[in-house]
Each structure stands twice: as structure tokens, then as C-alpha cells.
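#help-structures
NK: newbie question, is this the right format to request a structure? protein is Peptidase
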Amino acid sequence: MFERFNRGARATVKGAVAEAERVGAGSVTEEHLFLALLDQKGDRASFAVASLGLLRRRASLEASFAEARRRGGLTKAETDALAGIGIDVGAIVDRVEGAHGEGALAADRSSRRWWSGHRAFTPGAKSILEKSLRIALGRGDRFIGQEHLLLALTATPGTVADTLAEHGVTHTAVHHALYGPEADGEGHAEAG
């Protein structure tokens, strides 16, 4: 599938690996893909990222990702849903960290990279790459670009989409930033 990625999308994927290496993660996650996307310049996705104000909110986004990792990957929506039935995730995290140390639930337990020499992509990250292909094909595009990765990140439930939504950036907002409001309906077949 990598041969279908254009130069910018390849740079994003390579940047995600570098981001995982920078933070010492054993595998490449959706977060790493998103953060690498923020670092890219000069294409439609970088324009959308800038127009949505994501560059100036990077620190806030990274803090939200860190908090989600601390909760064992649970999104804020999942945490709120559990609170609705009387489960206090914060209290659970505090007890686990009290017994096992700070960040115990956030630990990256993947050790495959130590044996293979590279960082594997998590199932979630692979899902984003596959979804970006479906989005590109659904739009009639021959190659996967950074805009398809950005759309896939916002259309796929999980920590990145949830965190972006908390910051006011939804799949629809990204679609509008990329293609304009007049493009509604176009390319939404794979949004759900």
C-alpha cells in the first residue's frame, strides 16, 4: 500500500516513526501519525491544519494525548460514559499509579522493536492508513495524500478523533477546511 502514498504522505509516515523514536515508544500510534502531520508543510492538509488553529494548539493537544495515555488509552467520552454508571476512572488510575508508579497504564509494552530493529505500527495506526486509502479511492484519487490521512484520523473513533473534537475540530470541520463547504456530501462515504 505504501506505493500508493504520495511524497507528503510518505513523509508523514516516516515522521510518525521519528516521533515514536523521539518519545521512546515501542510502536507507532495514531497520535504519532497526527503529530507528524502537524510538522508537514506546503500542501492542502498543512493549510487545513493551520486554518483550524491546530498548530498553535499543539501543546494542548499533546497534553490531552498524554492524559488519555495516562487513562490507559480511554478517550474522554469513554471516561465520561463510565462516570455515568458510577466508575471513577481517575480514582482507578490514581490507585494503579499508587501501586505501580506514575504512568503505569500508559506504558508501551511492545517490545517487538527490540528484536526486529524497527517500530511496528499499532493496529489503530494501521487502521488509519487503510482508512486513508479507502477515503482516497472514495474521492476518486489515485494516490493517498496527507489530506486523506487527516480525514482518516478524524473519521476513525479513538484518542486522536476524540481529542480533536474536544478542541472543536471534527471530521466535518476538516472536510470543510480541505475542500470548502460546497463539497459537502462529496467524499463522506467513508467518513463513518
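mod (FA): yep, format's fine, and the C-alpha cells are attached above. Residues 143 and 166 are 30 Å apart (CA to CA).
NK: thank you!
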